[in-house]
Amino acid sequence: MGGSEALGLLAEYLGSVGWQTHTFLGYGKQIASLNDLQGAVEGSDITLCGMSSSPELAAPELTAFDLAKATGKKFGFFADIFNSHRRTWLQDQLRQADVFFVLNEDEAAKARQHLPGVNVVVTGNPVWERFAFPKFTATEIRSQLGLNDGRVLLVVGTKELLINIALVSAVLNLVHRHNWHCQIVYSFHPGDRNPVALYEPLVAWSGGKIQLVLPETMAGTDIVPAADVIVDSFSTIGIQAGFLRKPVVTYASGLALGRLKVITGQEMWEPIEQGYVMSGRNDEELQRALLSVFSGNSGLRQKQEAMFLIPTELGRSVGLLAAELERLVP
Q1: Which of 75, 118, 180, 269 would you label with 95, given CA atoms 20 to 30 Å apart?
Q2: Global confidence as pTM
Q3: What is the per-residue pLDDT across 94-141, written as a single tens digit (0 to 9) for each?
Q4: How many CA atoms lie within 13 A of 138 on its CB side?
């Protein structure tokens, strides 16, 4: 259970190999219903939860943990992003978990140091595997969204209105100031519950240069292949872009950095530290990073090629997850 799409992919796989599963998934949003959660936990051999990005969103996961411990059932966590082991609202539960699944060996090393004695297992992220196999071609995406062959700047939103306004405003300021010729697509985060009307003044102010795309029209992850450049505020789309060799610039506004610290416990973002995403903390730095990308001299592609080997097949990650669950529940 949890907000992670990866757990839905795992549930599909487990069902295909004979497991009976109960799913309570939010896919980036608040889980709609927890009806029958107690019965599902009590009737299961193990409960596996995601790690939501706030104490409020994590409430169902905490409830599931309490039910599992009260009934003597095994329990685990799945981390779908960097530094999840630092989430303060899940520390007690992590230390008691039967298994903690993480992205890679670097994350495992940090988690084992932070949570000594916890069973940390590296599996990767099933969703990230799929990044290398886009649903649509760039031509198909541009056609569906009415985009021409010119430069497309994809701006990727978060769940937070103020961070999104700061992000879009910074991009539009630069486009207007320097008369950059590009088509701007703003992709809403699936967990953004703010009214779309709050964003509409930005469309009017842009003079029609920005197009708002809701998840039900096309998911941000599906738009990436058509983008020439991506601008975000700490989004995992930077991972997908790495597989597709698309340059990413993160606008690290004060608000975005503050939210990142709340979620991860630090103002450090792994993609920036590892060099396959550029960043800017203000308009001047954002401009410098974007100009570097536009010139083709950013060096991001070389970093991406070193970091993200294109998988030859799907399914390795869910296979590793399932194998560890089989070991825990013989």
Answers
A1: 269
A2: 0.74
A3: 999 999 999 888 889 999 999 999 999 999 899 888 888 999 999 999
A4: 13
